[in-house]
Write a structure and sequence with these properties.
alpha+beta, 5-stranded antiparallel β-sheet, two-stranded antiparallel ribbon, 7 strands
Length: 276
């Protein structure tokens, strides 16, 4: 009988212990969602011993800890997969204990920390305390990504540190007075983010075309817009750039823009307004 199910009913410690007892070789594939985004990860075993894990760009052991915090998701044990070199040296028992500890600490962090969709900015008024602050390399990495536009979730992804470690650092930076929460209007964030995606593909001339697409929907760039208006302006923008880059490339670009707009509005708000 294959090892398969949902993490809400069969926890990760249970899975690790069962693979350990049966001395199996292979990998557990996990698929679920986190902060409204589809995610997947892998946990690799050789003769029942956990040897590595994959989750985004995180190091192996940090990837495993991140997967412990996933409340639900489908999992299946697969045999015959290519195994990476052993990157995790700790015993299964120690990994389970640390994973459970991380879950408890993560729940406490979420009670104190801002939500992952919060945007942070650097504090503009100097503070005498800054002279005494010494930052670690990982803290500098997070600080350089705080620009008044990136959300905490985006910083976690782009830094490669994961949500747990990034949240720890953000709390420290807030407490030291280096950063602060920044109020960002949806319209402003939409125009900036959609513009960034378009410019990365088409160059700076894309900004003019995007401004025109906004105005055709009766929205000035940077003003508030509804999901329906954004859906329509994306359709118009796709038509306007199809002759420049070809239909398939234009479609891929606009699909990326729609995905980002969905994240900004929130998946539930977007789908209730325009559908999936």
């Amino acid at each position: 009988m294959p090892l398969e199910g949902d993490l809400s009913e069969f926890s990760l410690p249970d899975i690790i212990q069962l693979v350990d007892l049966s001395k199996q070789t292979g990998a557990v594939h996990i698929a679920g969602s986190m902060a409204g985004k589809a995610i997947e990860g892998w946990i690799y075993f050789r003769n029942g011993e956990l040897i590595s894990a994959r989750f985004g760009r995180l190091p192996a052991e940090e990837a495993l800890h991140a997967l412990f915090t996933l409340p639900a998701g489908h999992f299946v044990f697969e045999e015959g997969v290519d195994l990476p070199p052993r990157e995790i040296k700790a015993s299964n028992e120690k990994l389970i204990i640390e994973g459970i500890r991380r879950v408890d600490e993560w729940e406490q962090l979420k009670e104190k920390a801002p939500a992952l969709d919060v945007v942070l900015g650097l504090v503009s008024i100097p503070d005498e305390r800054r002279k005494e602050i010494s930052l670690e390399p990982e803290e500098w990495r997070v600080l350089t990504l705080i620009d008044g536009r990136n959300t905490i979730g985006e910083i976690a992804e782009r830094s490669g540190l994961g949500e747990f470690r990034t949240t720890q650092i953000v709390l420290h930076l807030l407490e030291t007075g280096l950063v602060e929460e920044k109020e960002v209007f949806v319209g402003q964030q939409l125009f900036e983010e959609l513009g960034r995606i378009a410019v990365e593909t088409l160059g700076h001339s894309a900004t003019v075309l995007l401004e025109d697409a906004f105005r055709r929907q009766g929205v000035e760039p940077g003003e508030e817009a509804t999901p329906q208006q954004v859906q329509l302006l994306c359709q118009g923008f796709e038509r306007s750039i199809s002759l420049l880059v070809g239909p398939s490339r234009a479609r891929r670009l606009v699909d990326d823009m729609r995905t980002r707009a969905q994240q900004i509005f929130g998946v539930g708000v977007w789908e209730s307004a325009v559908g999936k």
